[in-house]
Amino acid sequence: MARVKHVSLGDFLGATITDSATESLHADAIKIGSYVRTAIGDTAHEGSSFIKKNFMTGRAIRKLTGETYDSVQAYFAREDHSWYIRYGVRVKGHLNYIARWAGTKHEFLKPGFDAFVATKDLESEIARKVEARL
């Protein structure tokens, strides 16, 4: 069986990619990745504000405690490098009674997030935010 010679993109284009160019591309990729994470984080914060405004304002729970209302936040999980919107952020477990609503008719996070997504083209919005920083 004949062996196929590996051909790099530089060989194909008839160009040589220098180490400094490779380092520059790597640095740019890291910078763009940071811009994307920031844009997603900004959008997650907008989503948590949307949920608070449209799904919690005026409900009895807001009048009982501001802690639960304030606990609906976007946060960055370092373990998997992802942004999440959740309730109960920085609320002690035994005080986080709102978690009991998950999956019941009183659930507001999923319907709130679905309504937020329906109001925006998230991919285009994130792309615009990234492009604005380039």
Question: Can you count the helices?
Answer: 6
Low-confidence runs of at least 5 consecutive residues: none
| SSE run | HHHHEEHH
**What's the end-to-end separation, in Å?**
48 Å
**Structure summary, number of beta strands:** 2
Radius of gyration: 23 Å
> What is the 3D shape?
elongated
Mean pLDDT across all amino acids: 76
Described by strand count, sense and barrel closure, the largest sheet is: 2 strands, antiparallel
Question: What count of domains describes the coordinates?
Answer: 1
Structural class: mainly alpha
Biggest sheet, spatial arrangement of strands: 1-2
Question: What can you tell me about this protein's structure?
Answer:
Helix 2 crosses helix 5 and helix 2 crosses helix 6. The protein has one domain. By secondary structure, it is mostly helical. The chain is built from six helices and two strands.
Please give the structural blueprint:
Elements: H1 9-13, H2 19-56, H3 60-64, H4 66-71, E1 73-77, E2 82-86, H5 109-119, H6 122-133
Antiparallel strand pairs: 1-2
Helix pairs in contact: 2-5, 2-6
In short:
With 134 residues, this protein is mainly α.
Features:
mainly alpha, 134 residues, elongated, 7% strand, 6 helices
